[in-house]
Amino acid sequence: MPRKTIKKLRPAQPYLPDTSPFELLPLETKLQILSHLPRAVAFALAVVSRSWRDPAESVIWSKLSITFPRNQGTSVCETSPRVQNKNLENKRMERINLAFRTRPERIGWVRELRIEPDGDDINHLVDLVEKVGPNLTELRIGPLDQTTSMATDFFAAMMKNYDTIRPFPRLKQLEIGIHKKTSIESQFSDIVHLAPTLTKLTVSGTLSRARRKIDESHWPSSIPTLTRIRILDFEQGCIPLLAQIARSASELTEISIQCKDHSGSWMDDPFVASEDDLKLLRGHEGLRKLEWRGDWQSRYFFERICEDGFDKLEMLVQSEGIGCESETYIENIHVPPFPSLHTILIPCRSTKWYNRLNLPDWAKAPPPRFSISSHTISQLRQASSLLQIQFISSSSSSSSAVLSDAVAVEEWCNKRVNGVLVRSYTHKTTGEEMFHLKRLALKIVQPKIYNESSYQKGYETMKLCTGTVTGTDHDWIDHTSYRGYPIPEDILKRVYHRVKKEKGDWITPGRGLDMPEEAWEVLRRWRGKLPDDGENGTRVMTRSMRIMGES
């Protein structure tokens, strides 16, 4: 009998044929496809395809995170959370080092690195940062919102090798802690040396040493590429530091401040800021957005800083201690006299916000329907470009907000954002003014919408509104003023009837708009029948008046 041929079993190659159209796609196309795929799919492609391996791994390794939970509940018999995290960190580092030894090119693919040191031995993390640093675009060393963290010691440990450490030429975003035992001037010089093209910087730590005058001889002469600075744990004496940053960073466009809670010391400490420092800060030509977050007590310092200047500022984010829906009035908001300011965002809604069913003792009563206080009109005249104020959702974390940019008016009710739209009409000859404010009032509050995770996952399933102008859970309320008196609804309709291509139910704000002479005549005839008390009108008691002791 003929001998049977025995086929030798060979391991099948895991890769697809090299001639497959899927394999022959250009590298740019592969990277675009991978950018829309989950990391698990990218990992699978790296396993089964030779030509997709490098682009897939470049996506997989682009973000590297060594962070662990900080608040773990443990029993007496369990290992402490810090020990658990340290063990997890060691295992994670072993896998990363093994992956780098297996394929050294993976080191060059890391673009974003986030680490949270937790322990005395941080040298291995310092080595990791130095290894991947030349290709990094974002480095976050935290947690910066915990004063007991090792983040403030990490940068000092890393810069011990100042003479040998290579700069990170691609680094654009840096979050770092400032060490309390090293001068702020030298640490900022180290930051500029480490990241010469830095655009966004977040710092935290013990900044109280900035109370003294900054030593310019040890401060970097220029931070040419910095556009955004964010300071956590901001204290009363940090104005010189902020002013020095503004002086050095000519391209600075955004400043974000998170005030440190001193449980009343903001009101006890004097306002410490020299005129030179305030002039540097207020006179920055490139500043477009300012964010000030803090409790009610730090507002006094904020108002002092904003008394003048900031001519080019367009957006302001400020905390106002708004506690419930009935406080979302423009009368409760400090409007700085910035000539270019067009939007004010008030982070106020949180997971606890909707529980405030009763007004606190210091809250004012809502102003009468259709009215605008003389105090508000005075502020609007000084802020001649202000178009809108939005009361937005606030994150449960002190470090960020769910909404950091203005929301389109058409989306206000759907995103459970309410606010005030501002319109003013000016007579070019006589100088007469008519103010018309529209306030979106929410009549139904949805508790889940103020939960950060629920908000980020999507509010589409929770919204109740069917439209912007009309609906069952919200109302657009008009507030008007002409020479100190609110305009009755019938007179307002007659005015807008004479304004061509315009209706009274507008949702587009504007300042200094023109109005036909016939419309002005309607206002004059109506106003001429009323007593001439000037523009004082009805005095409205605001929260700032109540707290500061004004009558």
Automatic annotation (TrEMBL):
A Pfam family this chain is assigned to: F-box-like
Chain ranges of the F-box domain: 23-66
TM ranges: none
Coiled coil: none
Superkingdom of origin: Eukaryota
Name of the protein in its database record: F-box domain-containing protein
Organism annotation: Kwoniella newhampshirensis
